[in-house]
């Protein structure tokens, strides 16, 4: 009876261990991993972007014959497909609507200059974000000078001068065929272009562009970020000679703030300014007796920034990229100071900039000295001139400028806000694409990482961020397809914020690399002493049962 | 005949001239980086590991001299040698015997110090997974156009590096961290230098592109230290970093020395161990990579050609007259409450039972007593 009890005890212990112990151990050593929408993430890995823009082509009087005018309004859709790499495809869709001009528009086009025509056309109607209106004017029109065929306005309109009636053709089809390449040229300048979009995709597609200019272009502008910090610094190395006054607050309010307000859908900006005394440039300028001025060569400019950068402070609280704009007033012994470019010519603006860092302008004040002045001299800095240069540099660093338009184009100077509407549209297109590309790579690499390393804990908040990023991405792609640029940018910003938050969550640290031999080393001393008696007793029971069965068999026979 | 030679010379000259222009333009854009970062880590503590701190500080000094600002350097020192109690020359860390070169100076900015230098913090800095409260100086805010220099020194073994004598980082974890940096495009090119025993094992497992690695010794070899200083009493530098520093002292911000020269630093005759390097993951040819691409910070410059014509006059800011919010009178809290200090009463301390020492002493006395006189006397006590 004791033996039976012993056997029952062994069996029940074995049963407990296997039925209760093993699942308990498995469950308690499992890492908590919240559910991630992996299927949707894999879908996003293959990015198929469609960018749509609406274009309206308006025929003014004298450009279309009455037979042609009868057939308008007409809408055409053009698709252009590009496969960037095996995971990314692009489709550009332009919906062009042709119509004739209204009476009010005809009146507006009767203005003496193109700029005034642009202004009165804008007063009539405001085009939504992302769309364009092209007014076709006859060859005889006096709005544009002789060698200029296209005028690109400050808002979203362009004036296109068409050739003579005879050259164009009789039917509407011929007219449209004649117009198509010209319209395409305008779209390359005013709307998204393939070069810009592929440059914006650089996070997904690491491609090597053909020419050095596009490398320089892609390196110059800051990457898309939710916020930027702009710092204006006045460097006064010689306070004994110069007492500088700059109305930075007023200048920023008047000249810079309108641009930043216009760019507010793209990013937030924070501004600050500082004055640094006794801050020298790290380079000794050469004295040029022919011009009786000091010269800074283009080659030595590269070494100017580093000694100064150590002195510039930065806001410790935010991790946003910083754009530094420095205004350097040379000391009295080295005045005037001019910058020469690589071809030894004097630079008009006396300023230079460094990609992804900021700009420096040299402001000469020797004009303020008269014979027998007592130092220190009071100097009021002409902020309009300074801000003009800084604004141009700011545009370049934010990625606004693009390639020069063809020679027969005349581009209106950007208005008081420093940014034309179509330039803003271009920036929004490339930013949306960049955000979408970055967010998709972040999400897919995060999913891959979590998949590969089975030991990382995935908290609920990370899963939530990932889900919201996926939703925002899908919405952004959908809005880009339809052509709602404003919404697309907003969703893409939300997507990138959520994906960055999920990727850089501090809890996702993988410190749990256990090689297999270490795992064995940990578990064997714990489980082996317990398992050995159980196994041995089980084996004993099994062998006894088998022996008994053999005896039974022998008895039967 | 003469004309022919003249013509050939002329064509040769124009060819070389055009090649030179192409060369300089090509050099300008050959490296795709716009900024430089450096992460310099010393992983060992205790006074006898003085040389590791001196190693890191020498590299820090060179990197700063060649142009990388403090805001772009993350310096992690696991122990404080300059203010160590055993330092006979406080506030100095020397890198050459006879105390020729003080690498501590007075503008050293240490970002992670003492016990903050852990494997976890190091990986957090690399991958960017820092808590939101971390200040800017403790973050590696690199982007896809940053060239990063990572220098590690300490005690290491085959496949691991020891941090603070209590934990280790393995080469697999390091390779995974670099892969995560690549996935998030946190670097353009990365140079990894390690000066520990068996250092080459640390870069064996790298698999991300654009990584170049140098180590002071191969697997199975030990990296040796250079020279002890009899006044300070410890070894001041490791051999590899000593010769590396000597090499870097000849580099100035405009020099054109390339990586192939760096690979030749410290041959076996000087170093006793065999330095190794790994360039198979690097896309560019090492001969075209300048030392200043990683150790210095040469900025790319473009001349600003355009300016915007601004014609509006500056808006005058409205003068705020005194009908603002009332300015409150702020006062400081009483900084030194003298009266309270003078009239202090002695603090009431809680009663604690006697300490272990006293108890142990009494137990010993009792035991000895009963041992000598026998246990039967116990009943007299109770």
From TrEMBL, chain A:
Keywords: Endoplasmic reticulum, Glycoprotein, GPI-anchor biosynthesis, Membrane, Transmembrane, Transmembrane helix
Presence of keyword ATP-binding: no
Protein's cellular compartments: Endoplasmic reticulum membrane
Cross-referenced InterPro entries: PtdIno-glycan_biosynth_class_S
GO CC annotations, alphabetized: GPI-anchor transamidase complex
Pathway where it operates: Glycolipid biosynthesis; glycosylphosphatidylinositol-anchor biosynthesis
Coiled coil, from the record: none
Keyword Transmembrane: yes
One example of a Gene Ontology biological process annotation: attachment of GPI anchor to protein
Membrane topology term: Multi-pass membrane protein
TM segment ranges: 7-26, 520-542
PANTHER family linked to this entry: GPI TRANSAMIDASE COMPONENT PIG-S
Family designation: Belongs to the PIGS family.
Protein name as it appears in the record: Phosphatidylinositol glycan anchor biosynthesis, class S
TrEMBL record, chain B:
Any Pfam family hit: Peptidase_C13
Listed Gene3D superfamilies: 3.40.50.1460
Key words of the record: GPI-anchor biosynthesis, Membrane, Signal, Transmembrane, Transmembrane helix
One GO CC term on file: GPI-anchor transamidase complex
Leader peptide range in chain numbering: 1-16
One biological process term in Gene Ontology: proteolysis
InterPro entries noted in UniProt: GPI_transamidase (IPR028361), Peptidase_C13 (IPR001096)
Pathway, per record: Glycolipid biosynthesis; glycosylphosphatidylinositol-anchor biosynthesis
An MF annotation (GO) of this entry: GPI-anchor transamidase activity
Active-site residues, Swiss-Prot/TrEMBL: 155, 197 (nucleophile)
Top-level taxon: Eukaryota
Segments crossing the lipid bilayer: 356-374
Family: Belongs to the peptidase C13 family.
Subunit structure and binding partners: Heteropentamer. Part of the GPI-anchor transamidase complex, consisting of PIGK, PIGT, PIGS, PIGU and GAA1. Interacts with GPAA1. Interacts with PIGT; this interaction, via a disulfide link, stabilizes the expression of GAA1 and PIGK and links them to PIGS.
Name listed for the protein in its UniProt record: GPI-anchor transamidase
Organism: Gouania willdenowi
Gene that this sequence comes from: pigk
């Amino acid at each position: 009876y004791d033996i039976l009890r012993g056997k029952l005890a062994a069996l029940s212990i074995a049963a407990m261990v296997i039925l209760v112990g093993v699942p308990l151990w498995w469950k308690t050593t499992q890492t908590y991993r919240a559910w991630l929408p992996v299927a949707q993430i894999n879908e996003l890995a293959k990015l198929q972007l469609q960018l749509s823009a609406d274009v309206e082509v308006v025929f003014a009087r004298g450009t279309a014959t009455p037979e042609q005018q009868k057939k308008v309004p007409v809408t055409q859709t053009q698709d252009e497909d590009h496969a960037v790499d095996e995971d990314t495809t692009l489709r550009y869709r332009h919906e062009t609507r042709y119509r004739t001009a209204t009476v009010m528009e005809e009146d507006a086009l009767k203005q003496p200059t193109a700029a005034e025509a642009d202004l009165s056309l804008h007063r009539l109607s405001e085009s939504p974000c992302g769309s364009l209106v092209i007014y076709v004017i006859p060859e005889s029109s006096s709005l544009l000078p002789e060698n200029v065929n296209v005028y690109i306005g400050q808002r979203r309109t362009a004036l296109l001068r068409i050739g003579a009636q005879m050259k164009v053709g009789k039917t509407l089809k011929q007219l449209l065929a004649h117009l198509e390449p010209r319209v395409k040229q305008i779209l390359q300048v005013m709307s998204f272009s393939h070069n810009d979009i592929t440059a914006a995709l650089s996070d997904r597609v690491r491609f090597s562009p053909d020419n050095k200019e596009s490398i320089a272009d892609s390196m110059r502008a800051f990457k898309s970020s939710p916020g930027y910090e702009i710092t204006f610094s006045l460097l006064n190395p010689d306070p004994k000679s110069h007492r500088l006054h700059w109305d930075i607050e007023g200048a920023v309010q008047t000249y810079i703030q309108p641009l930043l307000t216009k760019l507010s859908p793209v990013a937030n900006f924070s501004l600050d300014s500082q004055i640094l005394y006794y801050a020298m440039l790290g380079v000794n300028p050469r004295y040029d007796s022919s011009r009786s001025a000091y010269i800074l060569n283009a080659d030595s400019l590269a070494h100017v920034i580093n000694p100064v950068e150590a002195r510039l402070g930065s806001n410790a609280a935010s991790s946003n990229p910083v754009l530094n704009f420095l205004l350097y007033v040379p000391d009295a012994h080295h005045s005037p100071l001019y910058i020469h470019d690589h071809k030894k010519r004097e630079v008009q603006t006396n300023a230079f900039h460094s990609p992804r860092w900021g700009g420096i302008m040299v402001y000469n004040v020797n004009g303020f000295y008269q014979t027998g002045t007592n130092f220190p001299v009071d100097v009021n800095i002409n902020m309009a001139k300074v801000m003009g240069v800084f604004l141009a540099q700011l545009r370049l660093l934010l990625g606004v400028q693009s390639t020069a338009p063809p020679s027969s184009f005349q581009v209106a100077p950007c208005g008081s806000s420093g940014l034309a509407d179509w330039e803003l549209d271009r920036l929004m297109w490339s930013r949306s694409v960049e955000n979408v590309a970055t967010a998709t790579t972040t999400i897919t690499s995060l999913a891959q990482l979590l998949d590969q390393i089975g030991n990382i804990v995935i908290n609920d908040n990370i899963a939530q961020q990932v889900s919201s990023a996926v939703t925002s991405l899908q919405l952004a792609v959908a809005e880009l397809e339809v052509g709602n640029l404003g919404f697309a940018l907003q969703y893409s910003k939300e997507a990138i914020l959520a994906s960055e938050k999920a990727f850089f969550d501090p809890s996702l640290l993988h410190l749990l690399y256990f090689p297999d031999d270490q795992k064995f080393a940990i578990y064997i001393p714990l489980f082996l002493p317990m398992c050995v008696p159980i196994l041995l007793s089980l084996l004993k029971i099994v062998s006894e049962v088998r022996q008994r069965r053999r005896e039974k068999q022998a008895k039967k026979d | 005949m003469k004309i022919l030679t003249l013509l050939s010379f002329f064509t040769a000259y124009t060819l070389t001239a055009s090649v030179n222009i192409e060369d300089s333009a090509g050099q300008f854009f050959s490296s795709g980086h716009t900024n430089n970062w450096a992460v310099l880590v010393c992983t060992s503590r205790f006074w006898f590991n003085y040389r590791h701190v001196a190693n890191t500080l020498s590299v820090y000094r060179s990197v700063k001299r060649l142009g990388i600002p403090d805001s772009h350097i993350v310096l992690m020192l696991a122990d404080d040698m300059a203010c160590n109690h055993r330092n006979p020359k406080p506030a100095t860390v020397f890198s050459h015997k006879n105390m020729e070169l003080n690498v501590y100076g007075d503008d050293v900015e240490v970002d992670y110090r003492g016990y903050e230098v852990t494997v976890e913090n190091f990986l957090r800095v690399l991958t960017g997974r820092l808590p939101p409260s971390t200040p800017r100086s403790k973050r590696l805010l690199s982007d896809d156009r940053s060239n990063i220099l990572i220098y590690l020194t300490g005690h290491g073994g085959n496949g691991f590096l020891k941090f603070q004598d209590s934990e280790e980082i393995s080469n697999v974890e390091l390779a995974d961290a670099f892969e995560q940096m690549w996935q998030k495009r946190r670097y353009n090119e990365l140079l990894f230098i390690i000066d520990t025993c068996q250092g080459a094992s640390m870069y064996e497992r790298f698999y991300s592109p654009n990584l170049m690695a140098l180590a002071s010794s191969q697997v199975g070899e030990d990296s040796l230290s250079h020279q002890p200083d009899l006044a300070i009493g410890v070894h001041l530098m490791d051999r590899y970093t000593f010769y590396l520093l000597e090499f870097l002292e000849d580099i100035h911000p405009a020099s054109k020395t390339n990586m192939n020269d760096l690979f030749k630093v410290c041959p076996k005759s000087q170093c006793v161990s065999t330095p190794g390097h790994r360039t198979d993951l690097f896309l560019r040819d090492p001969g075209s990579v300048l030392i200043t691409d990683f150790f210095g910070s040469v900025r790319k410059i473009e001349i600003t050609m355009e300016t915007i014509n601004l014609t509006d006059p500056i808006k005058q800011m409205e003068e705020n007259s005194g009908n603002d919010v009332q300015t409150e009178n702020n006062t400081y809290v009483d900084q030194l409450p003298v009266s309270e200090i003078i009239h202090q009463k002695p603090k009431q301390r809680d009663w604690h039972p006697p300490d272990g020492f006293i108890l142990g002493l009494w137990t010993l006395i009792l035991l000895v007593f009963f041992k000598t006189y026998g246990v039967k006397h116990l009943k007299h006590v109770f």
